[in-house]
């Protein structure tokens, strides 16, 4: 994976966990940078959009004039939780303007208050054994378009998808110490 430059959108959310996870996954061969402006994104091979609050991240993307740069970005996008909400083509919450990068319809906070957070071992296409997934006020994809490969689904709905270079996840792979999904993503850049 040497030589890849991964940007982590650093406007709000669990930025440092993503920086650490990608730094480890790259094994010192690549570079991880925090992205706070359109200029920071130039030269990146990938952009991680972290978990956090999608309403806040969407507002900051707009305020900083980064929307067009993200939409025209040619690298892969690794979107987790709030990031999955942002990259979707439709969102069940009018306050968050979808980027429309991954053709999924998402529902925010799909697990309700009593199950705001939970962990589960899930089967993921491409991984030889289950992945321990940490869900925190997680969204779900209720539907995925024809160009989208569903990587994981639980009874409530779709929780992991891939579209071209992009991967979107309902859960937080940067929190479970298992970097197989990061590697799966980096392999396709
Ligand atoms: N519920 C949050 C949102 O929709 C996402 C939560 C998270 O990223 N852990 O923005």
Describe the protein in words.
The termini are close together. The protein is of the alpha/beta class. The strands form three sheets. A seven-stranded mixed beta sheet has the order 2-1-3-4-12-11-10. The protein has a three-stranded mixed beta sheet with strand order 5-6-9. The chain has a two-stranded antiparallel sheet with strand order 7-8. Helices cover 24% and strands 31% of the residues. The protein has helices spanning 15-26, 38-41, 54-63, 67-71, 82-87, 180-187, and strands at 5-9, 31-35, 46-49, 76-80, 90-91, 104-107, 117-122, 131-136, 140-144, 149-154, 157-163, 166-169. The chain has one domain (5-187): Class I glutamine amidotransferase (GATase) domain (Rossmann fold, 3-Layer(aba) Sandwich), CATH 3.40.50.880. Strand 7 (117-122) and strand 8 form a beta hairpin. The structure holds glutamine. Glutamine binds at residues 51-54, 81-82, 85, 108-109, 136-137, 139.
Summarize this, please?
The protein is α/β, with parallel strands linked by helices and 189 residues long.
Strand content: 25-35%
Average pLDDT works out at 96
CATH architectural type: 3-Layer(aba) Sandwich
Instruction: Evaluate the radius of gyration.
Output: 15 Å
CATH class descriptor: Alpha Beta
The CATH superfamily turns out to be Class I glutamine amidotransferase (GATase) domain
Count of discrete alpha- or pi-helical segments spanning 4 or more residues = 6
The secondary-structure class comes to alpha/beta
Number of strands: 12
